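Possible regression after last week's pipeline update?

I re-ran a chain I had predicted before the update to compare outputs. Posting the input and the new output here so someone can diff against the archived version. Not blocking, just want to make sure nothing changed silently.
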Amino acid sequence: MRMYNQNNKQKMMMHNIMQFQVATLDAALYLDTHPNDPVALYRHNAYSTQLRQLRDEYEMMYGLLNNYNPESGETWRYINSPWPWQSM
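New output (post-update):
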């Protein structure tokens, strides 16, 4: 039962990350054509901050989501856990 809840939580976290990635990208694309819109800028900043927090929490619990982050250990750990799309 605990493993099921763990997988369910991981899937839910990944789903939230994907939602904030889309929202952040959408806000950025809008800002490309409306750079002086303060509401859009506020939303982009809020979405990207939330996305960073979600990604940090996910990576602490389940491992790295991509290989663009600096490695903090002495070995390349990105390949040690399932790829993000394999844990879905």
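Follow-up from reviewer: compared with the archived run. The chain has a mean pLDDT of 84. Marking as no regression found.
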